[in-house]
Amino acid sequence: MAYSAEFRCIAGCPGGYPLDQVIYRCPRCHDLLEVVHDLAALRDRSADAWKRLFAERWRSLDEPDGSGVWGKHEWVVPQLARTHVVSMLEGGTHLTPVPKFAAALGLGDVRVKQCGTSHSGSFKDLGMTVLVSMVKGMIAAGKPLRAIACASTGDTSAALAAYAAAANIRAVVILPRGKISTAQLVQPLAAGALVLAVDTDFDGCMKLVQELADREGVYLANSMNSLRLEGQKTVAIELAQQLGWTVPDWVVIPGGNLGNVSALGAGFEMMLALGLIDRRPRICVAQAAHASPLYDSYRRGFAPLEAVKARPTLASAIQIGNPVSFAKAVRALRAFDGVVEIASEAELADASALADRDGLFTCPHTGVALAALTKLAARGEITRDHRVVVISTASGLKFADFKVGYHEGTHAEVPAPRYRNTPIELPEDYDAVRTALLRGL
């Protein structure tokens, strides 16, 4: 049986739209779209048969099946021809135990899903491989697309630039000038993207790129485009596979534009519908206190979104005050008995540093999620008998300045870093070195 999927309105308006149609919102109500799969067709394989197929492809040397995304091709964009797939073996990332961090919180099994150990260094690769592959197919079919464009605080632009370069498609990136790390800025530059650094914040960049997509024949690559979320939902499928097709009790994920939590929910819902898992985990979305419109809504019973002017935060990639995927995120949180928590600058920095003591090198956004977990554990909402997975969204190597500032004690909003570690400067003298060694052990 042929597998298929199409865009449909999240508000339930009638009608569907092909995945290769240039469309981002419902023409009737202007709400967001989502990708809906023909589940009846997918049930031609049993749950056990799907598990066996996914196990055979897991980290395979055969491209693109070895990709964490394309190894689940039938569940992502089934109509796309394999010849159009643009993959760099993204996904397949480690589920890393952090026993010292867990013990410090009084918890048992806590693991970090290392989505940052991907090609461009963030989970955005999972969605961008799908979007760019679809655009490659659309251009081959004669659609007049001049470029792929995104607004970004860093990671989206790096992923878009890399995959577009591999596909020989022009990429356009609109960034808030002076508000992203040097490591993040240089990635799209190195890949040859047209980079526009604009005197605004992410929300201002998002308005500009949407207008360009409407008027100038460029294809929109931000997470309001549901193709991105189809790749990102494989995080849920992967972690269930890595846990022997069981689900954790809790998943904690950072939230900015909020596409990630809706993608996570979509992955779990698809596994549940096809019988690969038998329950839903609970989900916590973690936001930086300086950019927390979802948290504000949650505190008011998921009241309608009130956009805010996001303040500067060390977690710059989630410094977003008007999240595009708010409605999708709320729907996922309601379905998964979800909660929303915030982290101050000191809390996210300390949590990140503590997790690094387990051998990680966490980005500040992962620090937000770890700080939220710390709070949930402190008030007894997450307990020792709960299995917890924290989604790490990017490589800490992209945020070396964040780490340097923490351990040098130069972050103004982290005046007393709890886990600061500094070198001991010594003369070239054996006794001095020996004394320092013995004191430090």
List keywords for this structure.
Rossmann fold, alpha/beta, 12 strands
What would your notes on this structure say?
- With 441 residues, the chain is α/β, with parallel strands linked by helices.
- It contains 16 helices and 12 strands.
- It has a domain of 207 residues: Rossmann fold (3-Layer(aba) Sandwich), CATH 3.40.50.
- Strand 6, helix 6 and strand 7 form a beta-alpha-beta unit.
- The termini are far apart.
Topology:
Blueprint (H helix, E strand, L loop, with lengths): L4 E5 L23 E5 L1 H4 L4 H11 L37 E3 L1 H6 L5 E5 L9 H17 L6 E5 L3 H13 L3 E6 L5 H9 L3 E5 L3 H14 L2 E3 L5 H7 L1 H9 L7 E5 L4 H15 L8 E7 L4 H7 L26 H10 L3 E5 L1 H12 L7 H15 L9 E5 L7 H9 L21 H11 L1
Parallel strand pairs: 4-12, 5-6, 5-8, 6-7, 9-10, 9-12, 10-11
Antiparallel strand pairs: 1-2, 3-4
Helix pairs in contact: 4-5, 4-8, 5-6, 8-10, 9-10, 10-12, 13-14
